[in-house]
Each structure stands twice: as structure tokens, then as C-alpha cells.
Amino acid sequence: MHKKMINKLMVFLSGAMFFLLGYQLPARADQYRSMGLANLDTGSQLDFDLHIPRHDNYVGILPELNLQFGTGDASYGLRLGYIVVIPEENVKNESSFSPLVFNLKVKKCYESESQFCFGIHFDVGIDPFNMNQDDHVYTFVHVYTHMLALSRVGGEFIGLDPMFVFELRRSNIFLQASLGPTIYVPLGDESNNDVEAGLLYELEFGTMMSELVGLGIGIRCMSPLTWDVETLFALDFNMQLTLEKIHPYLRLRVPLNDPYSEVMALAVLVGFAVPY
User: Fold this and answer.
1) With b meaning 16 or more CB within 10 Å and e meaning fewer, what string describes 105-121?
2) 3-state secondary structure at position 122
3) 275-217-221 Cα angle (round to 5)
4) pLDDT tens digits along 183-228
5) Rounded to whole angstroms, how far apart are CA atoms 101 and 124?
6) For 53-67, what is each residue's pLDDT tens digit?
7) How far apart are CA 207 and CA 27, in angstroms?
């Protein structure tokens, strides 16, 4: 039943995107905000994200706050979150602060009739809260909500997610491709802790329906390189509003294969960005 629902959703979203390609309204692609694992938005802004992953056995609540300082074609920022996992059964809820994630973005853009940009989005995660010291379920849920990005793992570690990003904006159309390794470097003394690595990659298409409303669809992938887990695939569908002082957005993430759907049935993201 779950696979049939995913297949129907993919057909519907694909048809909607083809329709939008042929039905362009006056709007600018520079209003569109990427909703993927990486982006090249280098403006100064405050973001609040509320992730709600859902499975048959639990519901997760993950509020995150990101403060970003922009300097033109570069920016740096800090993200802090908290996670609560509410099991379906009558057992105690689990909660913890998530790792601190520092981010750096640098881009170079060229403009003619279109705007083409390339750059890097570099996340570095550390965990002063020792989030996974007892292998709690909230570590598991948190990491899978973020497509197994190893900057989100926690414990005595440093996580590195350097992603190379290519972005094209033309009229009201937006296209972005991202690719990069995700690396976990343990800092503890345990002999069984090894450096782990994977590959993150994604493709996102978006369009501004009007000066106010944007829609997007993206495919997100994570391929483990040093441990035996199949590649994770997920489909994202997002809607965003461009208001004068605040940019609200909504994203639905649907796992597309069994290794992912066994852990998470659906992840909803509700949030907003406040430029300053």
C-alpha cells in the first residue's frame, strides 16, 4: 500500500512539474529558495525549521534554529536543534540537543539571460552535548531525518559535509545539482571507532508560480561507502511563499526504497526564514 501511494505521488508531481514548465507566469527565479541538503543562499537571515518525521512506531519533533551572516558571495552560520522522540507505546519519551552544525558557503555567479552559479556548502558538526553516548533512539531518528548526513551523528566526533553545488536560474525556473562526501571522524579513545564516509547527491527543480508562490520537487540520495547499508532515496516536494519580511515554507519528504521507508514513512518540515 505504501509503495503504491509513493508511485501515485511521483506520477502526480511529475505531471505537475511538466505542466508548470509550459505555464510560466511573470516571476523571478531569484525568489526561489532551495530546500535540499545544500544551497547557495548567502544572505543574512534567521531560519526556524520544525521537522516532524513519522513512522508506525514513533513520531519525532525536531526544532532547529539557524543564524546566518552574509558577506555578498559568502556566508557563515550556526545551526542548533533539539529532538524529541515520542514512541507509540507506553514508554518514556527520549530527547536531547542535537549536534552544533557550523556552515560556510562560498559562490561565484555569472549572468546573461540566465544566472549560473557554482560554489560550496560546507557543514561541520560537533557535539558538546554527547548526544549518542548511550545509542539512544533520538540519534537514529535525527540522522535519518537528515538523509544520514554524518555531520548530524553526535558523540565524540567531528562531521564534515562539503557539498559542491551548481545552480541555474532563468526566468522563473530554478535548477540545482549538489554532490559531495559526508565524513564521520571519531575523537574518542574507543578502538572500534573508525572513520566512516558516504556520498550525498541531489537534484532539485523549482518554479515561481507568481511573485508570491514557489513550488519545487527534488530527489535526495545518500550512498554509504564504508558500511553495509543500501543507498537511500527520497522524494521532496515543497511549497514556499515570498512575503515582504518573512519567507514561510513547507516540505514533504517521502522515502522511495525499503532501507529508508523501514525507518521513516514521511518527514514534514514547516519553517520560515527572516532576512535581515
Assistant:
1) bbbeeeeeeebebbbbb
2) strand
3) 100
4) 999 887 654 578 999 999 999 999 998 889 999 999 999 999 998 8
5) 5
6) 998 888 999 999 999
7) 9
Chain centroid offset of residue 206 CA: 15
Q: pLDDT, tens digit, for every residue of 95-147?
A: 889 999 999 999 999 998 899 999 999 999 999 887 765 556 777 788 889 99
Q: Which CA distances in Å does 201 have to 15, 17, 178, 218, 251?
A: 23, 21, 5, 11, 18
- Cα–Cα dist 70/107, whole Å: 12
User: How confident is the model at residue 228, as a pLDDT?
Assistant: 87
- For 27, the grid coordinates are 516571476
C-alpha distance from residue 270 to each of 6, 35, 201, 239, 241 (Å): 21, 11, 23, 10, 12
Report CA-CA distances (Å) from 14 to 6, 37, 84, 93, 174: 12, 21, 34, 38, 16
The CA distances from residue 267 to 52, 54, 219, 234, 273, in Å, are: 6, 6, 14, 10, 19
Rounded to an integer, the average pLDDT of 23-41 is 78
Place of cell 561565484: 108
Whether 23 has a pLDDT exceeding 60, the answer reads no
CA distance readout (Å), 274 to 58, 74, 123, 240: 31, 18, 21, 13
Amino acid at 189: D
The length of the chain is: 276
Reading the block at residue 236, the C-alpha cell is 521532496
Q: Which residues contact residue 267 at a Cβ distance below 8 angstroms, ignoring those fewer than 6 apart?
A: 51, 52, 53, 54, 145, 252, 253
In sequence order, what are the residues at sequence separation of 6 or more whose Cβ sits closer than 8 angstroms to the Cβ of residue 124? 101, 102, 103, 104, 151, 158, 159, 160, 161
pLDDT in tens, 2-20: 555 555 555 555 555 544 4
